Amino acid sequence: MLDFLPAPLRGVIASLLLALNTILLCSFLFCVALIKVLPFDFARRASLWLMSHTHEAWISNNKGWMNLVRRTRWHLSGLQGLDYQHSYLITSNHQSWVDILVLQYVLNRRIQPLKFFLKQELIWVPVIGLAWWALGFPFMKRYSKAYLAKHPEKKGKDLETTRKTCAKFRNNPVGIFNFVEGTRFTEGKHAQQQSPFKYLLKPKAGGIAFVLDAMGEQLESIVNVTIHYPAGRPGFWDLLCGNVRDVVVHFEELKIPQQFIGKNYDQDGEYRLQFQGWINQLWLDKDALLEQMHREFPARH
Fold first, then answer.
1. Residue 183's CB: how many other CB atoms inside 10 A?
2. What is the per-residue burial (b if ≥16 Cβ within 10 Å, else e) of 12-39?
3. What is the pTM of this model?
């Protein structure tokens, strides 16, 4: 434990450890990527195993420096029943970039490493795009409404392309992650949206519906996560400095309603309204849970 050191010094040490962890494991990952392109089934299976465990090792090493700079008190509930051999869609309220590290910290080796749907263009981002590709992050191709108006023959092609991308997960469990709010909560965004929720922004149902459209039959369930920071929303530098004393996280596993599987959110208006109503109810329940968390775990400084 380095809590006897000044917070800025702890932040510098944690930053160096994070950078070293990323450089070393990304270097190994790129070597594994060379195996991935070989036209042999054994090479494909071996590369998938190595990449998944490299991903988990990166998260485990991050847990190491997080524990080193501060022994955070974790208040966790609802984790029972999660299975490493199943595929899940995970969603959460979004307050800070710390949320991602929190989810990785708690879920590492409980379920498969979290993956995000990414726009196809992001595969060309230097270094990071290659890392995402090597780790098997699903890339999606989506057409704008304006483009589809000019090229109606392309309707449904984006979903078809994404389904093909996700086919590789059929025999390999995966954890797909999506922030339903689409952006981090701030008071300014909350006021601008005139959000009906006290602690949340309005949910955007399209992203999670797209995941269900593409791979709903492959998913065991939805894991609905609610995160609360008693001392207020931390920044990433706060995490590096070891200033995150308490984290409250509740997990709720939800079966995916059968009527939401195999539907097209963009083209089926009735389904879209039903799905939006279901997501809004989840957000009402989450807002009430956050109210309860604020009472049970009041602000600590």
1. 10
2. ebbeebbeebeeebbeebeebbebbeee
3. 0.88
